[in-house]
Amino acid sequence: MNRDAVQGNWKQFKGLARQQWGKLTDDDLAVAAGKREELAGRLQERYGIAREKAEAEVDEWMKRLS
Q: For residue 11, what pLDDT is reported?
């Protein structure tokens, strides 16, 4: 699924993101609002992982959505 589709349907995908990454708060998801870079940054903060790993996780998650 492309980034625009995720961003446009973010309300639907927030629940799936919460299932995938339980440490993310509602505030984290509201700030991310479907933006890949923001979501990766929030993952990096909450899980203490490298930026590259967080981006790879977001990319993989977006691929599974399609």
A: 85
